[in-house]
From TrEMBL:
Molecular function terms from GO: ABC-type phosphonate transporter activity; ATP binding; ATP hydrolysis activity
Any single Gene Ontology cellular-component annotation: membrane
SUPFAM superfamilies: P-loop containing nucleoside triphosphate hydrolases
Domain ABC transporter span(s) in chain numbering: 5-246
Pfam families noted in UniProt: ABC_tran
Protein source organism: Mesobacillus boroniphilus
Protein name: Phosphonate ABC transporter ATP-binding protein
CDD domains: ABC_PhnC_transporter
Keywords assigned: ATP-binding, Cell membrane, Membrane, Nucleotide-binding, Phosphonate transport, Translocase, Transport
Positions in coiled-coil regions: none
Length: 248
């Protein structure tokens, strides 16, 4: 098994708040990992650290055995790690094709990137990606006119065009109704398997985490609460993870 991510005693402190405390685990290539845990457990913080959007306060993250902090070249980083959030990174006013082609920006120089705002470049990539997510006919539609589920598929198409080895997803289905949430998760996992990607997604739904992922990493108060194969997670584990502190 090839280890692609390794966290070594990671701590993240925001001003005085300890969001993550001495967290260590590793992830192998191709694993499908769900991050679960109550609100404020540190899931978003962890994903932002893995995406190098935030630096850790202490500890080290290794990607393929090399410190993430040294992966500075934007082009190389985009090929290694991609992140998807709830609709947030899409520009609603732009046609779908422009949003999908943002996935190519790290490949292009500044001139091609600017030109693409007027005349979409590498249209073939966008068309192919949109057809894989079932939106072949939406290429020129205004992104904000699409439903939440369709917009999340646009974000998946953008990731297909970027084609990173590691996909991080922060609450990718939080704003979707159950049928559309399952649809998007199904597609996200299918793409990860086809592209041999490593997928780490934070989820509020334990049911989806167990259904679609191989491994569940549970955080509570910034610490590792359990790290188990999805099939070994019991209702008791879940109950104690989400149990509120009793007021004495
Ligand atoms: N920028 C910030 N400044 C200060 N504290 C922060 C900041 N971002 C997060 N926190 C705090 O760090 C802790 C972890 O937050 P984080 O957003 O990572 O949790 P989460 O598990 O993703 O929560 P949720 O499920 O509600 O999204 C929380 O107590 C939160 O209030």
């Amino acid at each position: 098994m090839q280890e692609v991510i390794s966290l070594n005693q990671i701590t993240k402190i925001y001003e005085r708040k300890i969001a993550l405390s001495s967290l260590s685990f590793s992830v192998n290539k191709g694993e499908l990992v769900a991050l679960i845990g109550p609100s404020g457990a540190g899931k978003t913080t962890l994903l932002n650290l893995l995406a190098a959007l935030l630096p850790p306060s202490q500890g080290e993250i290794l990607i393929d055995g090399h410190p993430l902090s040294e992966l500075k070249d934007p082009k190389k980083r985009a090929k290694k790690i991609g992140i998807i959030r709830q609709q947030f990174d899409l520009v609603g006013e732009l046609p779908v094709i422009h949003n999908v082609l943002v996935g190519r920006l790290s490949e292009w120089g500044i001139f091609k990137s600017l030109l693409s705002m007027l005349i979409p470049q590498d249209k073939g990539y966008a068309a192919q990606a949109l057809s894989r997510v079932g939106l072949a006919d939406k290429l020129y539609e205004k992104t904000s006119s699409l439903s939440g589920g369709e917009q999340q598929r646009v974000a998946l198409a953008r990731l297909l065009v970027q084609s990173p080895e590691i996909v991080l997803a922060d609450e990718p289905v939080a704003s979707l109704d159950p049928a559309r949430a399952e649809d998007v998760l199904d597609l996200m996992v299918k793409i990860a398997l086809e592209e041999k990607q490593t997928l780490i997604a934070s989820l509020h739904s334990v049911e989806y985490a167990r259904k679609y992922f191989d491994r569940l990493i549970a955080l509570k108060d910034g610490e590792l609460f359990f790290d188990l194969p999805a099939s070994s997670v019991t209702d008791d584990h879940i109950q104690s993870l989400y149990k509120l502190k009793e007021i004495s």
